Structures are given as structure tokens and as C-alpha cells.
Amino acid sequence: MWLGSCHGANPANVEYMLKTNFDNFPKGKTFAALLGDLLGGGIFNVDGDAWHHQRKMASLELGSVAVRSYAYKIIAQEVEACLMPVLADAADRGAVVNRQDVFQRFVFDTICKISFGLDSACLEREMPMMKRLLNIGSERELKKAIKLVDELAAAMIRKHRKLGFTNSHDLLSRFMASAGDVHTVDDKYLRDIVVSFLLAGSDTVSSALTALFMLLSKNPEVAAAMRAEAGDDSTPVTYEHLKGMHYTHAVLYENMRMFPPVQFDSKFCATADVLPDGTYMSSGARVMYHPYAMGRMPRIWAADHGEFRPDRWLTGAGGSFVPECLYKYPVFQAGLRVCLGKELAITEMKAVSVAVVRVFDVEVVGESGSGACAPKFVSGLNLLFYP
């Protein structure tokens, strides 16, 4: 059922796989082997005790007020000192920028600072390491790309071992401190954590931001409403201010309904089972659930499912944001594997989108040079856009 009928597009089936009978639908050895060279034994590539251990540690760290405060401070600094100057320079010169490239660089910078205390400086004009890590240009071979990732991870681990981590706030330091003595923590274990952080915190957020500004370009009234909610650009945006922006929150969720950063996921059925819709699953069968398809189904989102309409997420006279059931909207997964970095990702996307719409009117230019062009859907680990 990998490319056949998508039984994971039924919310009841999604809930059954991700919650009700979770243990019978693991990632599976096939998935682990497929991405083993890149993800190793990281949290996204394992099941059982290894997953439970990393999940518990990640939950303790990412759920803490100290980490969220530390992360927001970095995000706000990067927006003000790096992202906005790049966009302002392009606006002053009347230049066209590749928004996906800019957001990939920005998000890579922030995740490196938050996770490793490293300033990767990717928003500088010349960024050869970033070019190679993003597989842009001539270096496209998988082995070379993984070698670069390994080199970066090893350098980060050496730095943390040398400097110690007891007084550091970045996530890798906190993981090392909770795992044991600095000299005894296994390098392979730390390498897989580093790669998991990079994957979870960079491509997904940059993909969502890329889609967002395409949609805002087509729907200027939505950008205007976000600008009105954010207020005068002379007023600094605080973390509490961001949390109160219900309309902007709805815009982000509506954006990811239409263009989820992770378009699909799959599980393996450990023992023969029957899904809630009556579908029989044989032992070892692979079943996929597809957020991209689910976000476009009229039986889930009504007849206007193709419209970009943020107010579908708002209720009441004050327009309060109300989330949908996660099994109907599994953009951040759901159940026991629900994304632990969800709040951090939303905060980063909010901070970027608010800062940009307060100052700029963004126009996405298509291949013809007039108007926004539809993205070309590219199936993969994360949604990418190509001109």
C-alpha cells in the first residue's frame, strides 16, 4: 500500500496507527535501513527502547521554559541582525531573491545556534559549506553529502568535549549533560542527535516559510490582516506578543494544511491487523498516511478545501485560534510521536512572518516574470519548491 490507495488519509486510521495500536505500527527495519547512513540511531529512525530513551530526554529539554526563552532570544536576534538586512538590501536594489534559499540559510543559522551554540553565518553572501550541506551545486552524491554532515557533527562534538557543557544552554550541551560524563558519552550517539536536530529544525521550517510567502503574495489581504494584528513596526515583538497573535497562528496552520513540510509518512504493520475502515493489513505490510492529500480532501475540509482561508481556524467574536484534531491534521504527526519541537517551530515561523510583513510587501515572481507561479510538487523527506 505504498503507492496504492492511501488508507492513512482516513483520520480514524491515522489515529489507530499513531495512538490506539501504536506498538503495532513502528517505523520498521526497512525504513531504518533506508535512512541509516544519514539518520543513524537518531530519534526519527528508531523504535522501541532507543526511541523511548531519546524521546524522554528531548521532551524534558524542549518542554522547559528555559530552553524556549533561550531559543526565542536567538530567533529574535537572527531576524533583526541577519534576515531583515538581507531582505532590506534586496529591496533597496530592486533585486529578486530566492526565498527558499534565504529561509534555508536563516533557519540553518538559528538551529545551529539553538542546538549547538554555533554561528554558521549562512546568511553571509558567501557560504560554501552551506552550499555543500544543502546539496546545491555540483556536490550531489549521497556519500559526499553524508561525509560533510559527519564532519560537521564531529567538529561540534569535539568543541563541546573540549569546552565542557555545564554552563552552556544549547541543546547538545544539555543532552550531553543529561547523558553522563563528557568523556564517556558515545560519539556515534551524539552524532545521530546532531543530525536529528539539524533535520528537524531546518528543512521543515524553511519549507513552511517558503510556501507561506507564496500564498501571502497571492493573498495580500491576509498579509494586511497580519500586519494589522502585529501593530506598528516600531514596537518590539515579545514572546508574549507573538503568543497572542491568533490570526497569524491561523495563517501558519492554513499554510501547512495546504503545503505540509513533510508530505507523507509510513509505518510497517508488525502483526496482521484491521484498520478502523475495515482494511486488512498483513504482517509486514507498509501503510502510508499523507498530510498533503488529507489537506485537500473535501470530506475532511469541506467544499472550500482548495481555498487559502485562515479564518477556518478561528472561532468566536474575538477570532480565537482553535486547532483541529491532530489525526485530521497530522502535519506535526500525532499521538506518541507528535513533534516535540512543534511550539519552537511555530514561534520561529511567527517571528519571521511578522517581522517581514510589518516592513515589506512580498511579491513572488514566476517564470514568466509576472505574478506568482504554482510550486512544482517534489516528493521527498521534505517539501521543496522548484522554479
TrEMBL record:
Its cofactor is heme. It comes from the Eukaryota. GO terms for molecular function: heme binding; iron ion binding; monooxygenase activity; oxidoreductase activity, acting on paired donors, with incorporation or reduction of molecular oxygen. Pfam families: p450. Keywords: Heme, Iron, Metal-binding, Oxidoreductase. Heme binds at residue 339. InterPro entries: Cyt_P450 (IPR001128), Cyt_P450_E_grp-I (IPR002401), Cyt_P450_sf (IPR036396). PANTHER family: CYTOCHROME P450. Belongs to the cytochrome P450 family. This is Cytochrome P450. It comes from Miscanthus lutarioriparius.
